[in-house]
Structures are given as structure tokens and as C-alpha cells.
From TrEMBL, chain A:
Organism lineage string: Bacteria, Pseudomonadati, Pseudomonadota, Alphaproteobacteria, Hyphomicrobiales
Protein name per Swiss-Prot or TrEMBL: ABC transporter permease
Membrane-topology descriptor: Multi-pass membrane protein
GO molecular function: transmembrane transporter activity
First and last residue of the signal peptide: none
GO cellular component: plasma membrane
Annotated compartments: Cell membrane
Keyword Zinc-finger among UniProt keywords: no
Pfam families to which the protein is assigned, alphabetical: BPD_transp_2
TrEMBL record, chain B:
Extent of the signal sequence: none
Domain ABC transporter: 24-265, 276-503
Example of a GO MF term: transmembrane transporter activity
Superkingdom, natural source: Bacteria
Protein name as catalogued: ATP-binding cassette domain-containing protein
UniProt keyword annotations, A-Z: ATP-binding, Cell membrane, Membrane, Nucleotide-binding, Repeat, Sugar transport, Transmembrane, Transmembrane helix, Transport
Pfam hit, one: BPD_transp_2
Main location as per UniProt: membrane
Membrane topology: Multi-pass membrane protein
């Protein structure tokens, strides 16, 4: 009982643990029920999840800036980046560096545009990134017409699909990235500033933080990661197609929220995003194994997101009322003691 | 404190004889917030015709007591009775309090700024409207006469938007609104004169006296003791949550009240002027700010400068201008050293609620380091320990969450934050608000030490007594410094006197000219959707005159109808300051339902449509009840709608029921059907918006707190809002089926974002509360014509999305440049 209390206290500070437990349970159940699950099948799932993790971590930075900020342009960035990779690399390893530079530049440009709209002009993030997405959609259509063919550079292909003693290289990249992100969030000034800005923007400003650059860098990180992800994803599937980034829009947000990052901002966990990505891919794979139609898969994903948010929303309400001892709104009425 | 308790019992032993009929009585009210007691055993009885002056320092428990009286908070212990009949608190709430004739005029005004004066009167007493046409004129008349009754010659226009009124005018509206409520028996006025000038304040007091003769009771809360003595029949003094004194006004004097409130009992500080003799200037104030004084003001090392004046006279603005001088007032404020800020509104501007005490302190130093530097708990602890020590803040509590601390200790942590930031200038924005006496004393002592240590403190306070502790006091009025007091000249009466000085209104005229200019720009931006639509149509007609025919227009505009409907749906959601990312998918689902189930089995189909609509409306309820972001929920819901559609109909197909096709396929001959239908959508949304229901929805979009205070249910109206949106989105789905004579679950997807774009183009504010149906419809038509326009101009349809995106960005940019920036970055 006491151990349970200790654990629940610890879990409050380490919200990623719930996603990890979810992965473990679902995987155990699947192994027992189907007999088809093994470590190697898990590694396949982790490989797919790695692509989601990379874009999810970027999305996490934006969500952490608070005020309901979300980057809706990641899906278009992934797609466009895959096309740009085809255009620049043309299947030659020799062009790999150019392709990489192009992907980074694309990410920087989109991130800078989003920051300009959000920070500079004060346009709400969702509208700004939405508009950016429109512009990128046209760019994608144009590059779709211009690509010479679907050849992928062998080196990049190895990177995206290869394994080192059974472990997918992509998974190693994703895990290293998550470790680096965790370090940045926890042990650098930037991580602290990001959290402060996300928790209370007015307080952050008055504490001497320049909020604009912090928020802008979150958007830039998100776009650059999405762009690199598109490059690798293109190599993984062996080409590019319109709408290939689309599934990553909801899934990246779901991975962030499911992993324990607060949707209201201020607290992020990269490890949680990693586990939640695995969990989401596991759920989708399970539904495919059971043979649910694609429609049902969409429904289940939608329900998972709403359900988790509804639960997390409650936490936020509790937290807010605790932060507000004067209880100066209607919410206090319901928690106030009754007269005897 | 023991001697006070004795005084308390003495006064309680001699209750005021209830000659007149009792209106309401509170008995032995005790309210605890965790370990702190905000109210302890307070009795308060109000009889008809009483004018009770309620006084006490900040944190004395006045607000808590009034919240309990008005039903917005339950006490821990105590009773309430109306005309002798006891009421259980469990059955008592804001609505019940209003029903029993209690009205409160809040200090932080609770009007909806986006609505007219008359509409705000409607929100308070909705009963009589009955939705009949002309209901507005009823409330216009009522607002007019109510305002004239209290404030003769006020000149407030009943049709003016409240957001365009001055603070004083808003306060007058709010007071008049409460006074005009039918059946009102008791009006609680919380600092009603804080922004009124002397004449208006006199008018108000005359009004109160007249109404009290007629039997209406008042509770008058004010820091201006002169007013209390002038108006009240009885006075209640609160101190530290207890009744310190209660009695007839004849037995009271200002000096006595000050003493009872604990005013002069604490010699606030003994700051020695010698420390301030340095000539090291840290801040210089000049320009229009000091024009009244005719000279610049220098703030030097080692002094404490107080900022006084009526609330909202420019003190806060000066603090912020000193903190970040690159704003508008840059010419007036020159800062020679770094500045730190200690906020008094701890919840909004002070604490980081997710962090420990340590994190909250050390951010002050961390914020001033390069972003790529490393942080460590140990280093933070070492820096913070020193500051905490000086503040007598126990460093064993470093690991506790900041929200677990009392208000006073939170404030100490914020001071510690400013200390570790180590800035020569420290700005204080009413820092002792809601802080207990003992901590206040600590606080004053500390401020003296800090100043003596060679920093300068600039202190804005709403407690005039605290100003007596300053070396110098700058008194504000109307955004200017009108008086500088120093040393012995700092007295409460001098401060209050100077607060009412009227500065020469030289810059008011210039301001108005500016306003006219931005007003013109804003009108231009608002006309943009119509100009855009006209341009697009003109270009197309020029390229192909056949477009201008009835048939040509119909061909062009019919496909726009679905987008227009989705836009109308999105507009109502945006009016509540939310965005629905699933509305297009929902239209697609309705389209699929109508082309499959409704076609094959009409009854089952109808049932499914109703169920879908209920689910959609329920979503709104969930968002409101759980306080979760609508964007993510609706994004998740969009997957559910699409999934359902796929499950029902994996590939496009189905057929449109005959009656449905007939609904969209008729003709009046000369006028294109599509134009009639689109106009009908605009008209219906306009009518909904003009109905009392529309006013309530806009009220919620602007100021939900005020709406809840006026007794409206937020969850119910969230349901209604989503139901209206669902009806429009459903109609969009039906139109898709009828126009395409088949269905495709993906047919509505692109409408979601186009709808948002159209709504924004049309002039609705994403902050909520502003709805402009005609503009949004024009925006929707323009956007849906972009594809055809590009075709006419021989541009590839690939550019369709980019054009739409760029139009959206351009409009938002224009809007953000012309609108005043309401939210700070």
C-alpha cells in the first residue's frame, strides 16, 4: 500500500511511465493471444514508431510553449521534404549532403515563417501554421510534377531501413534524439525558459525572459525535425506521395499528449513521446492484425485522443484550483466546504 | 490581536436594534482556505434602507464575505437568512441570490465589452424580452432611464459598444444596471467610485440616499473613508477576517476607522533619507508623463519611490514602461540599469505553478543567462539560499510546489527571485495584495534593507498607508504625474487630494485623431471581403461575359453553397473563441449518411442524422465541462467522423434522395437559385446573431466570467453553440449530397480550414465574441471562387491552396496591424 502511494507520487512527476506501462501491457497481451509477437516484431513496430517520435518531439516543443499552440504544418513539411529529397538527391549518394542541407533549409524556412506569423504578427499558432500548410501544399504539387523519378539514395535507404545487430538504425537515431532532448529540457537554460514561457507567459516576461525567441525556436525545431523526418520517411517507403505526411498530424499530437506532455504547455517529456509513439503504432498494428477496417482504425485513434485529453483536462483543473487558494471563480463553489 | 477580539464581543453584545424589516442576515460566517482563515465568526445583518459601509485593509476578508453573501462561494461554517427565514447554503448560489434580490457591482467590472450598453442590461434581466422583435428598444429605454436616474447628464449612449466606453462610463453603466434590476433589495457596491470623478461620486451618493429612503439596502465598500462617513448609516470594520468594530456612523471618525483597520498601528518603515542622497541616477522620467510638473524626475540609487493615484491612472503603465522601455513611452522613460519586477497578481503574473519554490526563485537568475548554458540544482540552491535567508523563507521548503505556499510566502519567493536576478532597479506592482500582516512587516523591513543596499525600489500600491513609507511619492491622474510629494509632505489627504487633480487634456485630441485614422483603416479591412468578392467577379466577367448570366452565376456559385454553410457553422464556434477542426469531416459524414442510410431506409437515416447531431453538440459540452482545448478534441473527432464515413461507405457512391435534390434544384427564373440560397444562409445566421440567444452566445465569447455571474450556464450554452454549428454543418453535408448526387466522405475535408479562413476574412475575431455573418459569407464565396478565377487567368489549379493561404495570411497581417494589440506577447 505504501509502495503504491510512493509509486503514484513518483508517477505524478514522471508521467511518461503510463505510456511505457501501456506499451508493456499491450505487447504482453498480444504475445500471449496471437503467438505471432516476438522481439523482432516489436523491433519492426519500434522502427515505424521512430518516424513518429521524431516529428512528435518537434510537436512537443511547440505544444510546450503553451496557449494551445500546435504546429499544423508538420504534415505538409514531411511531404514536401520527401519530394525535395527526391529532387535534390536523385538517387545518388554523392548528392546526399545537398539533400540534407536542403531538408534543413526547408525546415528552417518554414519554422522562420511560422515564427514570424506567430511571434511577429501575433497570429494564433493554429491559423498561422494552417496558412503555411496551404502554401506548402502548392509547393508539393509543383515538385510532384518536377521529380525525375522515385530513386532513393542507397546510403539513405540503409539509414532508414537498416539494422545494427537486429536493432533498427532509425530507432537508435530516435532514442539518441530523445535522450538529447531530455537533457536539453532538464539541464539547459533553454529548457527552463521554455517551461517558464509555457506555464505563465506574463510571469515569464516579468521574470526577464524574452518570450519571442523562445517561442520562435520551438517552431523552428518542430519544422526542422519534421523536415528531416520527411527525408528519412521518403527513403524508408522508397519515394514520396501526396498526403504521405497527413497521418502524422493527429498522431504527432496524440503522441505528445499521450506521453504526458501537458497540452496547456509548460511541461514536456521526450521519453513519454517516445513510448506514446510506440503505443500508438502498436494500437494501429493490433487493429490491422485483428482485421478492423481502416475506418474503425481512425475511429479508435480519435477516441483515444479525446479520452486521454478528457482525463488530462481533469488534472489541469485540479492543478489550477490548487494554484488559486482565493478560488475567485465559480469553480470554487463546488469544492468549497458545506455549512454544517 | 486579543484586544481586538474583546472589542469584537463588545460590539456583538450590543446589536443594532432591528427596527426596520431585515433583508438578509449572515450568522457566524467562517471560511477557511487550507490553514488560513479568511473569515472568522462574522455576523452581518442588513435591514431595508440600511447603508452599510464595509471597510478594512486588503486581505481583511471583505471580498470573501461578499462572495459568500452573493452565493459565489460557500462558507466553511455559518448561516444565512432572508427576512428571518433561514436558507441552507447547499441550496444557495449566484442564481438564488439574484432571485432573492441581491445584486453586486464588482470591482473588476463584469460587463461584456463586445456588446452594447442595452444588451448588457438584457444579460442581467433577460426575463422580459420573450424574443419578440424590438426587444432591443425595450432594453435601450431601460438602460437610458436607469443611467439618467443615477447619473443625470451622463451622456452615455445606450447603443454604444461597452468596449468603446471609458472606465468611468463602464462603472456608471454597471452601477445603473444593478440599481435598475426589478425586485432588487440589496446592492453591494465594491469600490464603486474608484474611477469616478468627484461630481459623479456625489451623484451616486445622492442616488443611494434617495433609494435607501425608499427601502433599498446598500453595502458600500470603499477605501475612501471620507465617502464611507458621508454616506453610510452603519459601519462595519473588518480586520484579519474578524469584525473589528460595528456601529453607527455617528460613533465613527476617520481616525478611529484607520486605527481599527490597523492603519497606523504598524509604523511601516524607518527609511533613512541619507541612503537616498546618492546622485547615481537610475531612471529618468520626462516628456508628456511629467508635463504637469514642468520638470523631469530622476530616481536615484537607494530610494523608495511610491506611485499613487486612483486605480488605473497610469501607475501600472509606468512600471511596465520602465521594465521594457522600448514600448510607446520610450521618449518619456529612460532607464540606466537593469530592472526586475515583483508582481502583486501572483496567479496571473508571478508564479510558475508547475515548479517548486526553488525553481520559481532561481528562474530570476537563469532568465538572464545565455540559452545554451547549463543549469544545476546545486548551483541554483546556493544562489537561492542566500536570498531566502534574508527573507526568512525556510529553505527546507525549496522542494515544495510553489502553490502549496501561502500568499505571503509566495510573495517572498517572488522577492527572492528579484534578489537573485540582482538588478539595481526593482519594480513592485502592489506586492502586498492579499498578504497577512506579519508577512507584510517582514516585507517592509526587507524593502528598507534592499534600498539601503543601494538599489532603488519603485513601488505601486493600492494601499495608501504603504505610501507613507516611501521617500517620495508620485501621484498619478489621467495617465500623467500630477504631483510629487516627499518627506513630511506625504500624507494620505495630500495623496487623495492630488489623485483627483484633472490633468490638462492636451493629448486627448491627438489620441482621438489617431483613433479616427485606425478606425478608417479598420473599416477598410472590414470591407476587404466585399472588395475581394467584387474584384474576383469583375475579373471573371471581364474574361468571360457569359459568367454574368443567371445560368453562369448559378454554375459558379452553387458549389460555393456548401462552403458557405460550413463557414456559418465555424463562425458560431469561433464566436465562442474556439475552432472546430472537424466541421468539414462532419459535413462529409452527414453527406455519406444522407446518400446511404437516408436513401435506403429514411427512418433509420433520419435517426442516424439526429444521433450524429447529438454527438456533435455533445462534443461542445465535453470541451466546456472538461476545459480541454477544442482544437485537439475536434481534430480527434474529425478522425471519428471520417472513420464512421469510411465504415459506412468505403468508396464514393450512394444516391441523393429525391426530395433532397428537389430542395436544391428549383428555379425562380431570373435570380440564380444559388444566390437566393446563399443569401438565405447569411440571413438566418444574421437573425440568430441578433436574437437574444445570439447576444448570449457572443457574451460567452467575450467574458464568460461575467456571464456566469449574471446567472447563465456555460455548459448549456456550449451545447447550444455546437448544436447551431452542427445544424449548419449538417445542412452543408446535405447540400453536398444534393449537388453531387452522390457522397464521398472526403468531400468536406477541405472546407474545415477554408471555413476558418472565410470566418477570419469576414471580420470575426479569433478571440471570440465578434460575429459578422455577411462578411463571413462573402469571404466564403470569394475563397471558393479562387479556383475558377485561377482557371480564367490560365494559372494551374496547383496554386489554388497557396493563393488561399496567402490571402489568409495577408488579411490576418492587415488585421493585426490595424487592431490594437489586446494580448501581450
Amino acid at each position: 500500500m505504501n509502495a503504491l502511494a510512493t509509486f503514484s507520487l513518483w508517477a505524478q512527476r514522471n508521467r511518461w511511465v503510463w505510456a511505457a506501462i501501456g506499451v508493456l501491457l499491450l505487447w504482453l497481451v498480444l504475445s500471449v493471444v496471437t503467438n505471432r509477437f516476438s522481439l523482432s516484431s516489436l523491433s519492426g513496430i519500434v522502427l515505424s514508431a521512430s518516424f513518429l517520435t521524431v516529428v512528435g518531439v518537434g510537436q512537443m516543443f511547440v505544444v510546450t510553449t503553451g496557449r494551445g499552440n500546435i504546429d499544423l504544418s508538420v504534415a505538409s513539411v514531411i511531404t514536401l521534404s520527401a519530394f525535395v529529397a527526391l529532387l535534390t538527391i536523385r538517387g545518388q549518394d554523392a548528392n546526399l549532403a545537398i539533400g540534407l542541407v536542403a531538408a534543413v533549409l526547408l525546415g528552417l524556412a518554414v519554422g522562420a515563417l511560422n515564427s514570424l506569423l506567430v511571434v511577429g504578427l501575433g497570429i494564433p499558432a493554429i491559423i498561422a501554421t494552417l496558412a503555411t500548410g496551404y502554401v506548402l501544399a502548392t509547393a508539393t504539387l509543383l515538385s510532384n510534377k518536377a521529380i525525375p523519378g522515385f530513386a532513393v539514395s542507397p546510403a539513405l535507404k540503409d539509414l532508414a531501413t537498416g539494422r545494427v545487430s537486429g536493432v533498427p538504425i532509425m530507432a537508435i537515431i530516435a532514442i539518441l534524439g530523445v535522450a538529447a532532448t531530455s537533457f536539453v529540457l532538464r539541464y539547459t537554460v533553454f529548457g527552463q525558459l521554455l517551461s517558464a514561457v509555457g506555464q505563465n507567459r506574463a510571469a515569464a516576461r516579468l521574470a526577464g525572459i524574452r518570450n519571442g525567441p523562445v517561442i520562435a525556436s520551438a517552431f523552428i525545431i518542430s519544422s526542422v525535425l519534421a523536415s528531416l523526418d520527411g527525408l528519412l520517411l521518403g527513403a524508408y517507403i522508397g519515394g514520396a506521395f501526396l498526403e504521405m505526411g497527413q497521418p502524422y498530424l493527429l498522431q504527432s499530437i496524440a503522441a505528445v499528449v499521450l506521453g504526458g506532455t501537458l497540452i496547456f504547455g509548460g511541461s514536456a517529456t521526450a521519453v513519454g513521446t517516445l513510448f506514446a509513439s510506440i503505443l500508438l503504432i502498436l494500437i494501429v498494428t493490433t487493429m490491422q492484425i485483428i482485421g478492423l477496417p481502416p475506418g474503425a482504425q481512425d475511429i479508435v485513434q480519435g477516441i483515444v485522443v479525446i479520452f486521454v485529453l478528457a482525463l488530462a483536462g481533469r488534472q489541469a483543473i485540479v492543478r489550477r484550483s490548487a494554484a488559486d487558494p482565493a478560488g475567485n471563480d465559480g469553480a470554487a463553489t463546488s469544492t468549497a466546504g458545506r455549512p454544517s | 490581536m486579543s484586544h481586538l477580539a474583546v472589542a469584537d464581543q463588545e460590539s456583538a453584545a450590543a446589536p443594532i436594534a432591528p427596527i426596520r424589516q431585515s433583508v438578509v442576515a449572515l450568522g457566524q460566517i467562517t471560511k477557511s482556505f487550507g490553514p488560513t482563515l479568511a473569515n472568522t465568526g462574522i455576523d452581518l445583518s442588513v435591514g431595508a434602507g440600511d447603508i452599510i459601509g464595509l471597510v478594512g485593509g486588503n486581505g481583511a476578508g471583505k471580498s470573501t464575505l461578499m462572495r459568500i453573501l452573493c452565493g459565489s462561494m460557500w462558507p466553511t461554517l455559518g448561516s444565512i437568512s432572508f427576512a428571518g427565514e433561514e436558507v441552507n447554503f447547499a441550496d444557495y448560489g449566484t442564481a438564488e441570490a439574484q432571485k432573492r434580490g441581491i445584486r453586486m457591482v464588482h470591482q473588476e467590472l463584469s460587463l461584456c465589452a463586445n456588446l452594447s450598453v442595452a444588451e448588457n442590461f438584457f444579460l442581467e434581466t433577460p426575463g422580459d424580452s420573450a424574443s419578440r422583435p424590438g426587444w432591443r428598444s425595450l432594453y435601450r429605454t431601460r438602460a437610458r432611464s436607469a443611467l439618467d436616474a443615477v447619473f443625470p447628464g451622463n451622456g452615455v449612449d445606450a447603443d454604444a459598444e461597452v468596449g468603446h466606453l471609458s472606465i468611468a462610463e463602464r462603472q456608471m453603466v454597471e452601477i445603473a444596471r444593478a440599481a435598475a434590476t426589478p425586485g432588487v433589495k440589496l446592492i453591494v457596491l465594491d469600490e464603486p467610485t474608484s474611477s469616478l470623478d468627484l461630481d459623479r461620486s456625489k451623484q451616486l451618493r445622492t442616488f443611494i440616499r434617495e433609494r435607501a429612503k425608499a427601502g433599498l439596502a446598500f453595502i458600500f465598500i470603499s477605501h475612501k473613508l471620507q465617502e464611507i462617513i458621508d454616506i453610510a448609516t452603519e459601519i462595519v470594520v473588518l480586520r484579519n477576517g474578524r469584525t473589528a468594530w460595528q456601529g453607527k456612523v455617528a460613533d465613527a471618525s476617520i481616525g478611529k476607522l484607520v486605527q481599527l483597520m490597523g492603519g497606523d498601528a504598524n509604523p511601516v518603515h524607518q527609511h533613512t533619507v541619507s541612503a537616498a542622497s546618492s546622485r547615481d541616477i537610475l531612471v529618468r522620467l520626462a516628456g508628456p508623463l511629467t508635463a504637469e510638473l514642468g520638470r523631469d524626475i530622476d530616481i536615484v540609487r537607494g530610494e523608495i519611490v511610491g506611485l499613487a493615484g486612483l486605480e488605473g491612472s497610469g501607475q501600472k503603465e509606468l512600471l511596465h514602461a520602465i521594465f521594457s522601455p522600448d514600448r510607446r513611452q520610450s521618449a518619456s522613460v529612460i532607464r540606466h540599469a537593469e530592472a526586475g519586477f515583483i508582481a502583486g497578481d501572483r496567479q496571473k503574473e508571478g508564479v510558475f505553478p508547475l515548479w517548486s519554490v526553488l525553481g520559481n526563485i532561481s528562474i530570476g537568475a537563469v532568465a538572464r543567462r545565455p540559452a545554451l548554458g547549463l543549469v544545476s540544482d546545486r548551483a541554483n540552491r546556493d544562489t537561492a539560499a542566500d536570498a531566502a535567508d534574508r527573507l526568512r523563507l525556510d529553505d527546507k521548503r525549496f522542494q515544495s510546489n510553489i502553490t502549496e505556499l501561502s500568499g505571503g510566502n509566495q510573495q517572498k519567493a517572488l522577492v527572492a527571485r528579484a534578489l537573485v536576478a540582482d538588478t539595481p532597479i526593482i519594480l513592485l506592482d502592489d506586492p502586498t495584495r492579499g498578504v497577512d500582516i506579519a508577512t507584510k512587516q517582514d516585507f517592509y523591513r526587507l524593502c528598507n534593507e534592499i534600498a539601503r543596499g543601494g538599489r532603488s525600489l519603485i513601488w505601486h500600491t493600492t494601499e495608501d498607508a504603504e505610501l507613507l513609507a516611501c521617500d517620495r511619492v508620485l501621484v498619478f491622474s489621467g495617465g500623467r504625474i500630477v504631483r510629487e510629494l516627499s518627506g513630511e509632505a506625504i500624507t494620505e489627504s495630500a495623496i487623495v487630494g492630488a489623485s483627483f487633480t484633472q490633468p490638462a487634456h492636451k493629448h486627448a485630441g491627438a489620441g482621438r485623431k489617431d483613433a479616427a485614422k485606425t478606425g478608417l483603416a479598420r473599416r477598410l479591412v472590414n470591407a476587404a471581403p466585399f472588395i475581394g468578392l467584387a474584384t474576383v467577379l469583375a475579373v471573371m466577367i471581364a474574361a468571360n461575359p457569359a459568367v454574368a448570366s443567371s445560368f453562369g452565376l448559378d454554375l459558379l456559385l452553387m458549389p460555393a453553397l456548401s462552403l458557405v454553410l460550413v463557414t456559418a457553422a465555424q463562425m458560431f464556434i469561433v464566436g465562442g473563441s474556439e475552432i472546430d477542426l472537424g466541421v468539414g469531416a462532419f459535413a462529409g459524414l452527414v453527406s455519406v449518411l444522407s446518400a446511404t442510410l437516408l436513401y435506403d431506409q429514411p427512418w433509420l437515416g433520419a435517426l442516424a442524422l439526429v444521433a450524429a447531431l447529438a454527438a456533435y453538440a455533445g462534443l461542445g459540452g465535453v470541451i466546456q465541462a472538461r476545459k480541454i482545448p477544442a482544437i485537439v478534441v475536434t481534430l480527434g473527432a474529425s478522425f471519428i467522423w471520417v472513420g464512421l464515413g469510411y465504415a459506412l461507405q468505403p468508396t464514393p457512391g450512394g444516391a441523393s434522395p429525391e426530395w433532397l435534390s428537389a430542395l436544391f434544384n428549383w428555379s425562380l427564373g431570373f435570380v440564380p437559385t444559388s444566390i437566393i440560397l446563399i443569401a438565405a444562409v447569411a440571413l438566418i445566421s444574421l437573425v440568430i446573431d441578433r436574437l437574444p440567444l445570439g447576444v448570449v452566445l457572443r457574451g460567452f465569447g467575450n467574458n464568460p466570467t461575467a456571464m456566469i455571474r449574471s446567472g447563465w450556464s456555460s455548459t448549456r450554452y456550449a451545447l447550444v453553440r455546437y448544436l447551431i454549428a452542427g445544424l449548419f454543418a449538417g445542412a452543408a453535408g446535405l447540400s453536398l449530397t444534393a449537388i453531387n448526387t452522390a457522397s464521398d466522405i472526403n468531400s468536406g475535408n477541405s472546407f474545415t480550414l477554408l471555413g476558418v479562413a472565410a470566418v477570419v476574412m469576414g471580420g470575426c475575431s479569433l478571440l471570440g465574441g465578434v460575429i459578422s455573418p455577411i462578411g463571413a459569407v462573402a469571404g466564403a464565396v470569394t475563397l471558393s471562387l479562387i479556383g475558377a478565377l485561377l482557371g480564367t487567368l490560365n494559372v494551374s489549379s496547383d496554386y489554388n491552396a497557396a493563393t488561399q493561404g496567402l490571402i489568409l495570411v495577408a488579411l490576418l497581417t492587415l488585421r493585426s496591424l490595424t487592431a490594437d494589440r489586446r494580448s501581450e506577447q
